[in-house]
Amino acid sequence: MSEPTIAPVTGAPAGGQLRTLAVRITEDLRAQLDIIAQLTGRSATEEIRLALEHWIQKTKSDPAVLQKAEAVRADIEREAQTRRNAIAAIFSGDDSNESDSTPSRTTTRRTAKPGE
User: Fold this and answer.
1) CB-side exposure of 105: number of CA atoms within 13 Å?
2) Segments forming the whole domain that contains residue 71
3) Most distant pair of Cα atoms in the chain: their distance
4) Dist. CA 111–CA 108, nearest whole Å
5) List of residues 6+ apart from 30 with CB closer than 8 A
6) Number of structural domains, the chain?
7) DSSP state, 21?
């Protein structure tokens, strides 16, 4: 069975630029999708897009998913703070280790000896 060719989309919906997603499905599922698209007067692509939007909306309100999302957000914030601190330590002059690694800028004046 060959993959159907989809013509390029000329206009992007309000959500932004369109991207292609290839999904492999069984012939049975494809036949059902085609019938539903025919019955609704929409394309199979539009039916899939609507189904995904509905699924995402449903998933967004799932308490278990919300809890996991909050944990992921907290991890991201911790990592971001660690990285901000690292950048600050590299580029700020307040680092206490800086004096250990920077050569002393104190110069001593040498007195000329007679004949020099």
Assistant:
1) 3
2) 27-89
3) 108
4) 9
5) 44
6) 1
7) -
